[in-house]
Design a protein that fits this description.
Elements lengths: L30 H15 L2 E5 L3 H4 L4 H10 L1 H4 L7 H15 L7 E5 L4 E12 L23 H16 L3 H5 L3 E10 L8 H14 L7 E6 L2 H9 L3 E7 H4 L14 E8 L2
Helix pairs in contact: 3-5
Length: 272
């Protein structure tokens, strides 16, 4: 399975339950509730620092816990039982290392300075319209790992679904660009959800994408969550393509939180 196409965990994908911090200021909460939530968010965020990884080949262990949490709780992953077996966790560990080392694109980590542990992280990757032989290496396939045979059909069904989404929209042709920044995976551990951690990491990742030294011309996000879609709009993304998951994912009925994951969307932001 390719993480290049398995990118529903995208630019501000809060599908794990994490909602952008700006939602706390809406009229949906009482004044007292707002005060409690804002205080809680402020207290949590004061301990969280975002940064880019300096050495992905050694720092992967620091983000293993939120990675495993992601494959346990993210709605599309929740339909795949094989991720939760001991063998499945070993395969996910190998997949994490391979995915981080796909290229040298800066990846973002949210670090809890009080507990000295990762609250979440983002895997970003770079893609080109006309890649050199070195840049054209194949995406990281899930099939590279030694999954239990009975789990493969479910895993490949997720891959098929996300591939179909990626193939429906050609960012290079539509935007006339040659180099894009793509956030492939965003993971937030459960105890850090709903505290603005995803928002903080998204902002840090956006800084990387906009940094002129990298020469990115566009940012692409494939969102399966209603929350990630709304958050992307706040950052100035536009909707390029959307489809119903219930029509393209055979395990849709087995998913948790289907109410927030009804449509898959490709969001784009043109830099130049």
């Amino acid at each position: 399975m390719s993480l290049r196409t398995f990118c529903r965990f995208s630019f501000l994908n809060l599908s794990h339950g994490s909602k952008p911090a700006f939602r706390l200021a809406t009229g949906q909460l009482s004044s007292a509730a707002k005060k409690r939530n804002l205080t809680s968010t402020s207290a949590m965020n004061s301990n969280i620092k975002t940064m880019t990884m300096k050495d992905k080949s050694t720092e992967w262990r620091n983000v293993l816990t939120p990675w495993l949490d992601f494959f346990k709780y993210e709605p599309l992953n929740s339909a795949v039982e094989g991720f939760q077996s001991e063998n499945g966790k070993q395969c996910l560990e190998g997949l994490l290392k391979d995915t981080l080392l796909f290229d040298d694109t800066p990846c973002v980590v949210a670090w809890d300075t009080d507990k000295d542990q990762a609250a979440g992280f983002i895997i970003n990757q770079t893609f080109y319209k006309d890649p050199t032989p070195e840049q054209a290496k194949p995406p990281v396939p899930f099939a590279n790992q030694n999954w239990d045979p009975e789990c493969l059909p479910q895993i490949m069904e997720v891959e098929k679904t996300m591939q179909s989404l990626s193939q429906k929209y050609d960012v290079f042709t539509d935007l006339g660009v040659k180099k894009i920044f793509k956030t492939q995976v965003m993971c937030v551990s459960p105890k850090y959800m709903k505290h603005g951690v995803a928002q903080m990491m998204g902002e840090e990742g956006f800084k990387v994408a906009l940094d002129a030294k990298y020469g990115y011309e566009a940012v692409v996000s494939e969102c399966t969550s209603h929350y990630s879609y709304k958050a992307s709009l706040k950052f100035g993304f536009r909707l390029a393509y959307e489809c119903d998951f219930s029509e393209c994912y055979s395990s849709y009925d087995k998913m948790t939180n289907k109410s927030t994951h009804q449509r898959a969307r490709v969001m784009v932001y043109k830099i130049k």
